[in-house]
Amino acid sequence: MILTERSFDDPVIEVMSQSPRLEMLQARLRQAGMRPVAISSVQNHNSIDPLFVDLDVYPNAQIDSPQRLIVTLGAAKPDNVNSIHLSDTNLIQTLPTRLAIRRRERQRQREAALRAETAKQLGQAQNTSNAQIKPRLLWLGQNAPFLNAIKSNLQANGIELVAALSRVTAEDYLAKGGFDALMLYPSNAGDEASQFLKKHLSTDRSDTAKLVLLTTPETAAAIDRNNMDKVDAILDLVNEPDILSRRLLGFCETLSRAEPARHRLATHTTEKMTGLATRAFLEAHLQTQLRDADETGERLCLLALTATDGTALPLIAETIRPLLRETDLAARLDQDHICITMPATAYRGAVTLARRIEAELTATISWRVIERRRFHTLKTLLGGLTAKPHVSIRRKSA
C-alpha cells in the first residue's frame, strides 16, 4: 500500500476564532499547506507553533510571545510590529512563505549573536561596520500609476528606485550588480514579473539582491505558492503612495541594519589557504552551536568535503562560497577536509547542499553528512566526519 495522504507532515498552526469563520479559516490554512489546530485561549505558553488570531472575533487580543510567531487577520493592523498581519483572507496562501521568511531572519540573527559570542570567547573582536547603507532598489511589474510618487518619496530619503521595463532588462541589471533588492509586482500568472519569479527561483540564486514580493489580495491568488519559497520578504501593496513608501522605507531600514549587524569573520579567524574559518574557530563555535541546539531543540547538521588532493581545497572553498547561506559556517578542518556547519537544518537539507556542490565542482571529492544527535560530542562529530569510507564519491572526467 502506498501512502498518499501526507497532511500530517504539514506545519502546525494554532487558530483562535469561532464558528463559522473558524471552519473557513481552517479550510484556507489547509489549502495553503498548513495544519490548523483550533484553540479558544492561549493555554500552552511554551508552544513554539505559530498562532493565528482572528481579530474580527478577538479584536482586543493582547498576545505577545518571544518564542512564537503571531499571525493576525483583520482590517486594522495591531500595534505589535513583530506580528505578521494579513488584511484579507486571500493573503492566507502567502502565509507559509511569510512564516519561513521570519524563521530565516530569526535564525540569521541568532547565528550572528552566536558567532559574536564565539569570537568574544576567543578574545577576538567582531568584524562589523557602523556605516549606514542606502539601499538601491529595482522594480519590475505592473506600471502602477503611483510609481512616480513612490520614487519621489524614496529619493527624498536618499534611496534610489529604478523601474525595469521587462524581465530581460531586470536580469541584465542584476547581472551587473549594484542593486540591494528587487521589488517584484506580478499582476497575473503570465506577466513579466511572474515569468521572472518562476525562472529566477527555479535556479540557484547567485546574486546578492534581496527578492521582495509585492502582493494584493487580488494578485496573491495568481501567484504559484511554489514560486514564493525563496523570496526574502513579502510586502502588501496598497494604492496609497505614502503608506507604501513608508513600508518600503521600513524594509530599507531593515536592510541597512542587517548589513552592519551581520557577523563577518575577522581576518585572524580565517586561514590563508582557503580564506575559510580556522579549525580553532570551528571547534569553539561548534561547542556554542551544540549548546544552542540543546536549548532550542533545533537540528544541527555538519557536512565534510574531502579532496583527493589537498591542493584542491582552495578550489572547493571558492566554489562553496556563493552556495552557502548566511547561517552556514565553512572552515578548514585539516589538510584534506572542509567542514560546513548548518544550524536549523535537517539531514535532507544538508545532503541537498552536498549534491549541489558536487554539481559545481570539476575536482574529485567525497562528502559525508552527519545530523547531530544528543549523544554526540564535539570529538565524535568531527571524528565521524573524517572517518572512512565516505557515503558518497563523485568522479568527473577532466
Shape: globular
What is the CATH third-level topology name of the largest domain?
Rossmann fold
Q: What ranges have pLDDT less than 50 throughout 5 or more consecutive residues?
A: 1-6, 259-263, 390-398
CATH architecture name of the largest domain:
3-Layer(aba) Sandwich
What portion of residues is helical? Answer: 25-40%
The CATH homologous superfamily name of the largest domain equals Response regulator
Helical stretch count? Answer: 11
Q: Kindly estimate the percentage of residues that lie in beta strands according to DSSP.
A: 15-25%
Spatial sequence of strands, sheet with the most strands: 2-1-3-4-5
Q: How many strands?
A: 15
Q: Over the alpha carbons, how many angstroms does the gyration radius reach?
A: 23 Å
Separation of termini?
Answer: 45 Å
| Total domains | 3
Order of helices and strands: EHEEEEHEHEHEHEHEHHEHEEHEHE
What composes the largest sheet? 5 strands, parallel
CATH class of the largest domain reads Alpha Beta
Structural class computed from helices and strand pairing: alpha/beta
Q: Mean pLDDT, nearest integer?
A: 81
Descriptors:
single chain; 398 residues; alpha/beta; Rossmann fold; Alpha-Beta Plaits; 3 domains; five-stranded parallel β-sheet; disordered N terminus; disordered C terminus
